Amino acid sequence: MAKVTDKVFEHADRTRRFLMGRRTMVGPHWLATSLVCALMLSGCETIVPSAKPACSTTELSAANSAAVQSLRRQLGDKEQHITKLQSRLNAVEQSAEDSAIVQTLRHQLSEQDEHITKLQSRLNALKLIEQDRQKRQTFRQRRATITPPQ
Description:
By secondary structure, the protein is an all-alpha fold. The protein contains 3 helices and no strands.
């Protein structure tokens, strides 16, 4: 166990020095070595590399392309949903604008109704004045015709 651990640390140190020369601390070798070190320190007696990888590159690329297609479909669905929501928002904003216009028109209509009411009351007052004037005029005319000549 001690020999394996020493070899692992020696390999890790060699890899680290190699990567330091490249001015990078991230790489597949450094990661693999770190994982092996972690396994060794956790108490694993033997580390046997697998004979073949769990997945072939064609299986990975097929899985990746399927995942990409799935994400594209989801993105398309989200874009359609966003478009629907934007159209609803536009409709709500338009109805809000229409509502504001309707309120303004109702206010103007009520003001005009008040003005019409005032004008009607003035017209009625003028009609009464005109009727009174006509009554006085007819009364004067009658009085002038009824009075005996002197």
